[in-house]
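WARN no homologs supplied; continuing
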Amino acid sequence: MSVFDVSIIFKEIHWKEYSSYCHIMKCLLGYPVNERPFHSNYIDCKGNSRTEGIGDYLLFAVAYQWISRIIYCGNPYRESNDYHWFTLKDFKEKFVSDKPVENIIQLLYNPNMEVPDFGDEDEIISKYINNSQKEPCVPFQIIPAIEDVNFDGNFDYAILSQSPNYTPASADYIIDVFREYINEI
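OK structure emitted
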């Protein structure tokens, strides 16, 4: 098969078949929880082998059942909607506006059906949900504005992620400030 033939095949196959979240929902969740971290490789839309990375590491961590709750603080522009609606329990979403909202993440494993699209009929979505193996629920609070962030400091772990693709190097000093408030492990 030539390179040209392979590119035609990839164009004809729906893009969802070659993404991390489809790998998680169609393959990874089929493994016992303790084996999942050893099966993180998937094929992307260009045919390249990938593993969890800066854009999807949190969803993999939920699939590994390493996370029991997520508090998502939006950026200063109040953009806090970069998650997939079908990762939410029963595909139901409390929309983010000016105040914090509480959603629930619940991944579904259903290798026999396609993950529904946003505009699909309720019957198709219900059939998918009802025929899926359900993962544990993970509370998912979204705080859209810094003014609503209020923590008492009672955390078991704090994780700071550096995203070189999304943040300028001039913001790196925040890592050192963060270190002043934690015990690194």
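The mean pLDDT is 80.
OK
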